[in-house]
Amino acid sequence: MPTHSKPDLKTAFTLLELLVVIAIIGALATLGLSIASAAMERSKATKCLSSVRQIGIAVRAYVGDHDGRLPDTGHVRDENGNSLSWVNTLSAYLGPKFIGRCPANTVSPVDVTYGWNDLLTETTGQGIPAIRCRTQSATLVIGEAANAYTTEHFHFASSRSRVTFNQFKASVGVERHGSGANYLFVDGHVESLNPTEVKARLDATDSAFLIP
Q1: Residue 118 domain flag
Q2: What is the pLDDT of residue 154?
Q3: Is 72 inside any structural domain?
Q4: Which of 17-31, 87-101, 196-210 has the lowest mean pLDDT?
Q5: In degrees, to the nearest 5, what angle opens at C-alpha 112 toward C-alphas 70 and 40?
Q6: What mean pLDDT comes out for the span 47-65?
Q7: Structural domains counted in the chain
Q8: Buried/exposed 30-60: b ≥16 CB within 10 Å, e otherwise
Q9: Which end of the chain has fewer CB within 10 Å, C or N?
Q10: What band does 208 get if pLDDT is binned at 50, 70 and 90?
Q11: Residue 154 lies in a domain
């Protein structure tokens, strides 16, 4: 007797199975984007940290060459009216490859997004002797400017008695890198601090965080 072959049965996804596959693909794509975004933000924070460290090296070299004095702020101008801010007075120490803009700060309209602690200057704007700082490792030199901040130095000197955390974060981008920001201290070291740590330092009794 002749044999009859059975027809091939083609399998097909059910609607439910298709929806499950689409959901899995979507979840994996979202996860991949999140990982890529996190890696990009870490890269920006690392580049910023490198720039702040470069400023620290330049500051210590400048202090060594200028009788122990820290650089001036933009309050000082030369006889031609040119600003003698830290950006200019440190230019020879920073070198031509210095990047003054944090890559994570995409909002600020200025080229330099780091601010100088103006409490480290005389009322004239001339830098104070570094030795005047009670604890050089505890006193801030450079912080990351807030989005709306457009000058290269902070105006903390108007509140010499005490700068509150709210006043501080109005000028400083305390969450520039998500959970924190980079800070340079007089002794040249750099720390990444979260807002809670910054507030604790500002609130400490006889704090040296801003006031040398």
Answers
A1: yes
A2: 93
A3: yes
A4: 17-31
A5: 120
A6: 95
A7: 1
A8: eeeeeeeeeeeeeebbeebbebbebbbebbb
A9: N
A10: very high
A11: yes
- Least confident range from 41-55, 74-88, 113-127: namely 74-88
Amino acid identity, position 9: L
User: Hey, what are 104's tokens?
Assistant: 């994570």
Q: Could you tell me how many residues make up the chain? A: 212
CB 147, CB 105: distance < 8 Å? yes
DSSP the chain: ----PPPP------HHHHHHHHHHHHHHHHHHHHHHHHHHHHHHHHHHHHHHHHHHHHHHHHHHHTTTBPPP-TT-B-TTS-B--HHHHTHHHH-TT---S-TT--S-SSS--EEEEGGGB-TTSPBPBGGGSS-TTTSEEEEEBPTT--SSEE--GGGTT---HHHHHHHB-TTTTSS-EEEEETTS-EEEE-HHHHHHHHHSTT--SS--
Examine residue 157 and state whether it is found in any structural domain, yes or no: yes
Q: Are strands 140-144 and 181-185 parallel, antiparallel or unpaired?
A: antiparallel
Q: Which of 206, 209, 67, 51 is nearest to 130 (CA)?
A: 67
* pLDDT at residue 12 is higher than 80: no
Residues 102/180, Cβ–Cβ less than 8 Å = no
